Amino acid sequence: MEFGFSEDQTLLQQTVRDFLEKECTPDAVRSLWERETGRSPELWGKLSEIGLPALMVPEVYGGLGLDERDMVLVLEETGRFALAEPIVTTAVVAAPLLGRLIDTEHSAFAASWLERIASGDALVAVAPEGQPLIADAHVAYLLLLSHGDRLYAAEPDHVQLTAQPANDQSQRLFTVNWDSQKALCLASGNEGRSLQAELLDRGAFGCAAQLLGVTDRLIEMGALYASQRKQFGVAVGSFQAVKHRLANAKVDLEYGRSIIHRSAHSVSTNSPSRSVDVSMAKSFIGEAARFAAGESLQVHGAIGYTYEQDLHIWMKRAWSLDLAFGSGAWHRARIGDALTEGGLSAPHFGFEPRGL
Amino acid sequence: MDLTYTAEQQAFRAEARSWLEASVPKQPLASFDTPEGFEAHREWEKKLHAGGFAMVPWPTEYGGRGADLLEWLIFEEEYYRAGAPGRVNQNGIFLLGPTIMEYGTPEQKARFLPKMASSEEVWAQGWSEPNAGSDMAAIQTTAIRDGDDYVINGQKTWASRGAYAHWLFGLFRTDPESSRHKGLTFVLVPMNTPGITVRPIEKINGKKAFAEVFFDDARVPVANRLGDEGAGWSVAMATAGFERGLMLRSPARFQSTARRLVELYRATLAQGGFVDAGLRNRVTQCWIRAEAYALNTYQTVSRLLAGGKIGAEASLNKIFWSELDIEMHTVALALLESRGELLPSAPAAGDVGDWLEGYIFALAGPIYAGTNEIQRNIIAERILGLPRK
Predict the structure, then answer these.
(1) Same domain for B129 and B209?
(2) Is it the case that residue B280 has pLDDT exceeding 50?
């Protein structure tokens, strides 16, 4: 039992933080909003140089062979700097799912895409079952799509996209028309369902980890502004009413952090409690992020409500990530089912080891 | 990061479980805030001590079993699973004990810790005064050096367990010219010292949970000072760190309440009682938050075992568990509907359990151990860096 991170893991986090601080400034984020694709192949190239997309690809396919316990701190940093590139879908969802296909008839297909992801040569878009909107489909080299109990891989030539403009300018959402006859069926039946479930859990985990960084940034911006802005001759942050708003947001952030770190462990070990653990993470931090956005906005006052101030970059990230890969309400209902409808019984949760 | 238990930890859990199953009293003990309940709880503590489970993370020479904090968490999980009695000496074993471990002389450790572990000596807290509540640095009670003694004059209040405890620990002003955080000293005081008068205070349900303690030229040996003269504030902050940050409220307590809440929801549903999506959502939220608290504590313990310390983040904890506790009991009373109002002695009370008593107790949580408003100030100023003024 050791619930912490190694020196290597925190060093990796620091490396990514330093990199993004230089390469992913608020001005850079805004300038991408003006581009038609909203994406930066140059930035993706640099991210690939420091190994981000390759992080969880097995070494034999050119990756770093790390897992979610390493990735969770990296994802937090991508949230802190509001990175728009599809790191979650490519590195956290698609790569491990393709890895599951290595021992199947699709081995060669999976291996070649894993190599491309590791080298930075492939962005992948994914859609959970029943979800009509798919992010980053316009820049994807490969799309993982669901239909019934089947998981498919489709190439861009075989899909028809309709752009669906979103509130968060960093989000590029599409509806997709596609013909399953022209796509490759990767798995069906129980195996298909199992991969679909993993796809959803991985996406939700990735968003939750990013929300940690987003929430931290929202609180930090509020604290900084409240320390500088003066009214009645003093910094507004000296008033308890202001302090307590930010303190409340901080409490939720820190408890969310523990839940998300545990979900990283559950996903990486494919624990039987994986889905419930991910749902806890996603619902908890989604709510915490929205709360922090609201409190930070209130602390900023009118200036925070302007387009010019950078606060809305992170407010919009908080809102969009909260709704991606299952809203908080959806995830909470999934836990509620497990707890109260006899899906999984309560005494099997938590730190009491199963079966003792 | 490895969230699995070692074989040794599993074996320890199994040992604790079987000992507790065999030893926990079948009938709940009377409240330790009554004279007979206080003694019954001391008897239980003696049994725990004889079984080697009174204070698992303490060194064996002081009555512990030399285990680490992870084993303490495991023990706590088993303790609550077994429905074992509340810890009458929690002020001693969970708060003062670790502080003596850090600041005590070898003589003080040998003198106080073993009798604390066995609850031969039960401890009360002596922080607050009539004019020093949230503003603890306003302490006025003096302890003036006179030869080898301190002579104490003044008044403490809200002393938990003060009605029946044998000893009291607290902060006293040893330099009468000093103000605020300076000139305070941490002193251990026998309650049978001549010049001490105890007046129990009844809480809202009429039980004597705390007391006022009056000092009138009460003489206490200088040897009972913990840490240096005038350094009491920093010693007290270590105690407060343990109180808010880790030991006073172990996560198992809240996980156990959350499980009982889920069971109550299921039973209410099965019996056709009123439940709706709103109540279900609140039950689920409570359970998630109890898990979050447990996970956060495991992270804290991992950090401490790696050489870290408890700092201002203890304040996050105190807010989180105290507000969770109130919410869990509020939801339970809503599920019980009108039966939630019944005392256990009511003929129609049936299996309502101790939700009402727990609710009343939970309401004190945001007040004691430093009000949640003070904790929020600490978070804002010391963690988020907001200006004091």
Answers:
(1) yes
(2) yes
Asked whether the beta carbons of residue A235 and residue B379 sit closer than 8 angstroms, the reply is: no
Same domain assignment for residues B129 and B82 = no
Contact residues, chain B, for A255 at CB < 8 Å: 289, 292-293, 295-296, 316, 320
User: What pLDDT, in 10s, does the model give residues A279-304?
Assistant: 999 999 999 999 999 999 999 999 99
Which class for A262: exposed (0-12), middle (13-18), buried (19 or more C-beta within 10 A)?
Answer: buried
What is the rounded CA–CA span in Å between residue B187 and residue B36? 29
Task: Quickly tell me which residue has 């700097």 as its tokens.
Answer: A81
First vs last C-alpha separation in chain A: 16
In a domain, B116, yes or no: no
Domain carrying residue B131? 123-230
Instruction: Tell me, yes or no, whether B97 lies in a domain.
Output: no
Chain B hits for A223, CB-CB cut-off 8 Å, are 380, 384-386
Q: Are A304 and A276 in contact (CB under 8 A)?
A: no
Calculate the alpha carbon distances from B347 to B28, B342, B344 in Å. 19, 9, 8
Condensed to tens digits (0 to 9), the pLDDT of residues B182-231 reads 999 999 999 999 999 999 999 998 888 899 999 999 999 999 999 999 99
Instruction: Decide if A118 contacts A62 (C-beta within 8 A).
Output: yes
Q: What is the DSSP letter of B23?
A: H
Q: Measure the CA–CA gap between A143 and A140, rounded to whole angstroms.
A: 7
B208/B359 Cα distance (integer angstroms):
17
Looking at the fold, whether B181 and B262 belong to one and the same domain comes out as no
B295 interfacial to chain A (CB closer than 8 Å):
yes
Does B378 share its domain with B261?
Answer: yes
Whether residues B274 and B378 share a domain: the answer is yes
ipTM: 0.95
Task: Give chain A positions within 8 Å (CB) of B258.
Answer: 346
User: Domain tally for chain B?
Assistant: 3
Interface of B with A in 207-226 (CB under 8 A): none
Q: Is B260 on the interface with A (CB under 8 A)?
A: no
Task: Domains for chain A: give ranges and CATH numbers.
Answer: 191-348 (1.20.140.10)
Domain-ending residue, one of B230, B263, B290 = B230
**How is B316-354 classified by DSSP, letter by letter?**
HHHHHHHHHHHHHHHHHHHHHGGGGG--TTSTT-TT-TT
Q: Which of B61, B129, B243, B327 is catalytic?
A: B243
Could you tell me if residue B110 is inside a domain?
no
* pLDDT above 80 (res A349): no
